[in-house]
Amino acid sequence: MSSAEIKIVKDGAWEPVGEDNPIPVNQAGGATAAKQDAITAAITALKGIGNNNLTDIVTTLGLQSTAANQTALAALIGALTDAAVTDPTAAGSEIALLKGIIKQLQGDGTGALPIEVTGSTVALPVDIQYSNTRLPGVGVVTIGTGAAHSAGDVVSTDAGAVIEIDTGLPAGTSGIILSSITKLNQNAVFSGGAGYTLYLFSESPTAQPTNEAFTLTTPGDLEKCIGWITIGTLVDKGASCAVLDIGHNLDFTLATTDTKLYGKLVCNGAETTVTGAVITTILGIAAL
Questions:
Q1: What is the helix (H) or strand (E) element at residue 95, kind and residue range?
Q2: DSSP code per residue over 22-89
Q3: How far apart are CA 236 and CA 187, in angstroms?
Q4: CA distance 6 to 117
Q5: C-alpha to C-alpha distance for 105 and 143, rounded to whole angstroms
Q6: Residue 115 pLDDT grade (very low, low, confident, very high; cuts 50, 70, 90)
Q7: Nearest to 181 by CA among 254, 248, 276, 275
Q8: No. of H helices and E strands in the chain?
């Protein structure tokens, strides 16, 4: 077979290709219309939008990952050792900016907690630490000499000890009294008892001894008074007496250097107390 001559196998013998003996396009394993269409579709897909050639495709793929691009991406993300950036106008890596947010939430940044959310006209305080916490504030009265009281008399020690109630809130913050439980450590209520009024103050008021008519002096105690709550009539519970009161909803603000509230307990009825009996009031307090 000549090197310049093209032959095909036909009827079991080699025959030269010519006009009378063309290459059969439908011969098994040869070119077909379907195969040509598939090749054309593959070339079109490789070219993509803009009719790129193979050189364009290779160049584009090469641009996706280069040493310069990797360096720029690493600088954008940053390193775990990057210092926190708390100034929103300052530049910083993503890690530095995320550290800045965490630092602000922890109260160690340039911002202040509680976080203040500001709108176009109002500022809304959000206290993260205390907003959903109810805290017990406990006030205790140990009665001095038992005696018949008139309605409106102070119930206290003979010297007039003021009730101290630790709110559990930071000094200078605000809270609200939602409920109270008042207990008496004996198995019988006081004769003539009709409940109490607990007067509350942000600073310690003037002391008044037990069985003295309550008075709210001014100037002085009136300016310290945050309000008062009504305590219901004690009920005999067997070994002790108690009463639960809900819905006080008395809001207050603590003194700037104090975490306590102060109180005076005043009887609402003409009751006869017992020497040394202890009245305990537990306030349900939530922060505002």
A1: helix 94-105
A2: ---TTSTTS--HHHHHHHHHHHHHHHTTTT--HHHHHHHHHHSS-HHHHHHHHHHH--TTPPP---TT
A3: 6
A4: 86
A5: 47
A6: low
A7: 248
A8: 5, 13
Host H or E run for residue 99 = helix 94-105
Give Cβ neighbours of residue 115 (< 8 Å, ≥ 6 apart).
Answer: 105, 126, 128
Give the residue, 124 or 214, on which the prediction is more confident. 214
Q: Output the pTM of the full model.
A: 0.55
Q: How far apart are alpha carbons 206 and 216 in whole angstroms?
A: 9
3-state class of 253 per DSSP?
strand
Start-to-end CA span in the chain (Å):
103
Which class does domain 134-287 fall in? mainly beta
Closest by Cα among 275, 263, 234 to 143: 275
Average pLDDT rounded to a whole number, residues 94-101:
85
Q: Could you tell me the CA-to-CA distances from 212 to 15, 158, 159 in Å, in that order?
A: 136, 10, 11
- Spatial neighbors of 287 by CB under 8 A, at least 6 apart, are 127, 130, 131, 133, 135, 169, 173, 174, 175, 176
- Work out the widest C-alpha separation in the chain, in whole angstroms: 140
Q: Among residues 231, 240, 234, which one has the least CA distance to residue 265?
A: 231
| Residue 152 pLDDT class (50, 70, 90 cuts) | very high
The per-residue pLDDT for range 2-16, each reduced to its tens digit, is 455 666 556 666 666
